[in-house]
Each structure stands twice: as structure tokens, then as C-alpha cells.
Design a protein that fits this description.
Elements: H1 2-14, H2 16-19, E1 32-40, E2 43-44, E3 50-54, H3 56-65, H4 67-70, E4 73-81, E5 84-93, E6 96-107, E7 111-124, E8 127-140, E9 150-152, E10 164-166, H5 167-181
Antiparallel strand pairs: 1-2, 1-3, 1-8, 3-9, 4-5, 5-6, 6-7, 7-8, 9-10
Length: 182
């Protein structure tokens, strides 16, 4: 169970569950290396910051892979309001309904911040709600040898795996965990 929750946290770092909302309306991030940090309830992620090499196709892959998330959501909204984007969703996770409300501010070309409040009914793994802040900053071109979708998350090493993986590998791990939980 710990691994399942930890991997779920890794997806929150990427913002995948949240960005499933109205994927066509979400701006693409600038291609290159992004540093992504996440805090939950005001505490840094136990995985620490991560870096991800992305291109437009990588963002599209994530949007395509999130399609199955939308099937479990009865309400999804991602809309621009002035200089920010407002997101809201009501989705089923396991036997729990997760309701998310939040905002994205900044630029998807250089740096952005997401502030999200998620409530769980009934509680998910004893958690009633969660406040998540994600900050992302474009660092420049991807490092030599990196390909789009490559992730470097040194904190994942503590889970017994490598700190480096590709987003497609992460999606496969997610799918395997979902199959094992059924």
C-alpha cells in the first residue's frame, strides 16, 4: 500500500490527475527541462524536486494517457480567467469521490504554480482532504542524453528503484498497480 500511495504522489507531482480536465484547453509547456516541486499540507514532498524533459509530444502522451481518468469523472472544468486558469473536477478514485478545486498561475513557457484543494468522501487512506502546491520552472534545454519524457526524481530512489525513468514507464507502473488493486 505504501508504494501505491507513493506512486500516486509522484503523479501528483506531475499534475496528471488534475490536468486530465479538459485536456484540449490546457496550454502546452515549453519544450525543455522542467524542475517540478510539490508540497502537500505545507510540507515538501518526501520525493523532493524532480526534473522532467518534455516536448509537445510528451505533453500529448500525458493527455492521451489521462483519457481513462476522464471516464471516472462526472465533472471536469479547466478554464482561463484573466491571468489564471481555474480547475475543478469531481472524480471517483477507488471507492472515494475526490473533489478538486484550484488555480494555475504563471506562464507555461517559463514558470507556473498550481494551488489545489482536494477533498475525499469517504476519506482516502484516512485522508479527508489535501492541499497541494506545485511549482514548476523551465530550466532550459534537456540535458545531453535525455529524451522527452525522461524524469529524474532522486527521491524515488528510496522506493527501491532508480531515480531516473521515463513517463511511459511511470504510466506502465500505474497501470500495473491499478490491475493489482482490482
Amino acid at each position: 500500500m505504501r508504494f501505491h500511495v507513493s506512486l500516486g504522489a509522484a503523479f501528483c507531482v506531475l499534475g496528471l490527475p488534475v490536468l486530465a480536465a479538459a485536456a484540449d484547453d490546457i496550454p502546452h509547456r515549453k519544450a525543455g527541462l522542467w524542475r517540478i516541486e510539490r508540497m502537500t499540507q505545507g510540507a515538501p514532498s518526501r520525493f523532493g524536486p524532480m526534473e522532467m524533459c518534455i516536448d509537445e509530444k510528451t505533453d500529448d502522451i500525458m493527455r492521451q494517457r489521462m483519457g481513462d481518468q476522464e471516464q471516472k469523472c462526472e465533472k471536469i472544468s479547466f478554464r482561463r480567467e484573466g491571468d489564471k486558469y481555474r480547475v475543478s473536477s469531481v472524480c471517483k478514485m477507488e471507492q472515494t469521490v475526490a473533489t478538486t478545486e484550484g488555480t494555475f498561475t504563471g506562464s507555461f513557457d517559463s514558470a507556473y504554480r498550481a494551488e489545489l484543494h482536494v477533498t475525499f468522501d469517504p476519506p482516502l487512506h484516512t485522508r479527508v482532504s489535501s492541499d497541494i502546491v506545485t511549482e514548476a520552472k523551465w530550466l532550459g534545454p534537456c540535458k545531453p542524453g535525455q529524451k522527452p519524457g525522461d524524469i529524474d526524481a532522486p527521491g524515488l530512489k528510496g522506493m527501491g528503484g532508480s531515480s531516473q525513468m521515463n513517463v511511459q514507464e511511470l504510466m506502465k507502473m500505474r497501470d500495473q498497480l491499478r490491475k493489482g488493486a482490482q
